[in-house]
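Exercise: predict the fold of this chain.
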Amino acid sequence: MTLGQAIATIFGGFLFPFVIRMVWGKMVETFGAPGGWVAAAFVVGTLWTINHGLDNPMITQSGGVWIDMAVAGGVGVYVASAVKGGKIKGSLTNLAAALAGGVLGGFILSLFL
């Protein structure tokens, strides 16, 4: 992996939770549950395409390491919430679910990719 690919991979991992924090909550506040579903489709779909689906994606999969957006999203949103004063102890269940979902998703995809 080149230095440019490493920087792009880090930025791609940052971009997903950043957009979640910036867009998702506002869409839910404005449109309710349908806003959450639309945000899920647009945020996840668009950023998955940028990070993985292009001919030259932001996230480079190399050296046997597989990067999953669910782990990046879960950890990124968790850290951002903790930095803004969120209650860390009460969120450990959500963090564990995000990490387990990301690992499970990565494992399932590794079975056929």
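Check your answer against the key: The radius of gyration is 15 Å.
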